[in-house]
Please model this.
Amino acid sequence: MSKSLMIVDDSATMRKIIMKTVRMSGLEFDRTEEAGNGAEALEKLKSAAVDIVLCDINMPEMNGVEFVKQARQMDCSKNTKIIMVSTESGQDLIDNLISSGANGYITKPFTPERFQEKLTPFMN
Model:
């Protein structure tokens, strides 16, 4: 079954690091997208839905918290799995993200094994 992935982070270098780490995890995606902030990611989702989004929290224009809230209101992304990837590790923030519609959370620094553990349940 083909799967698609979008990486949302304001740092192009971090997007590349995340993509490399996902590949090292052994997970394969037929299509990958990148976005530099939440607003750009929402626009891309409108034109082509994706299965899984890996999203940073602290970004300009639209942060990850607002992205999750708005993505969950769009029909095209109701079934998209959104996993937050951030240095932020406060439990209140994580709880807020999960209650807003995020499907999981990975703290930086991350490993290929962590991506495999968090993403594999969504690969079927």
Notes: The chain has a mean pLDDT of 95. The helical segments are 12-24, 38-47, 64-71, 91-100, 112-119. Residues 12-24 form the longest helix (13 residues).
